[in-house]
Amino acid sequence: MRWWDIDPVLELEKDLFPEDAWSRGMFWSELAHSRGAEATRRYVVAVEGGRLVGYAGLAASGDLGDVQTIAVARDQWGTGLGARLLTELLRAATAFECAEVMLECRVDNVRAQKLYERFGFEPIGFRRGYYQPGNIDALVMRLHTASDSGSAAGSTSVQGNEING
């Protein structure tokens, strides 16, 4: 993701997450930490036919990665794009040498939970009232990426949509 992607990312963000959409400033802040030798973030976008159809971001701190966001345009649901975006984030987690990756997911977003479970994420707890407004709980999930559990980022290839980071 680059600065020129922020406007189309915001459009998709507002469509998918109208109550708790990220602001322009939040994306700028994340991108500020995604370049250079001291980078701690990895953000990617998926483009199809010149249209931004998805984006995702990961933050790394020490040996812990945290999936900050994954979003896929509604007309792309069920195409495997979410899995390809998550694969890119897990590749970044490997590059950042993260031993585990965490994420929060709305408790009512079963579709996303199933995606994360396919990649080996396991539920470990809840954050009550995490998503505001609306006071929706978050399911906290974790993936161990150390060699003893195998990395989920290993073999999935990115095809069909252009993924840019």
Descriptive overview:
With 165 residues, the protein is an alpha+beta fold. Helices cover 27% and strands 35% of the residues. It is built from four helices and seven strands; from the N terminus they run ααβββαβαβββ. It has a seven-stranded mixed beta sheet, sandwiched between helices. The model is unreliable at 147-163 (pLDDT under 50).
Task: Show the helix and strand layout.
Blueprint: H1 6-16, H2 24-32, E1 41-48, E2 51-61, E3 64-72, H3 81-95, E4 100-106, H4 110-118, E5 122-131, E6 136-144, E7 162-164
Parallel strand pairs: 3-4
Antiparallel strand pairs: 1-2, 1-7, 2-3, 4-6, 5-6
Keywords: Acyltransferase, Ribonucleoprotein, Ribosomal protein, Transferase
InterPro entries: AcTrfase_RimI/Ard1, Acyl_CoA_acyltransferase, Bact_Acetyltransf, GNAT_dom
Protein name: Ribosomal protein S18-alanine N-acetyltransferase
List keywords for this structure.
single chain, alpha+beta, seven-stranded mixed sheet, disordered C terminus
Structure summarized in a few sentences:
By secondary structure, the chain is α+β, with helices and mostly antiparallel strands. The protein has helices spanning 6-16, 24-32, 81-95, 110-118, and strands spanning 41-48, 51-61, 64-72, 100-106, 122-131, 136-144, 162-164. It is globular and about 35 Å long.
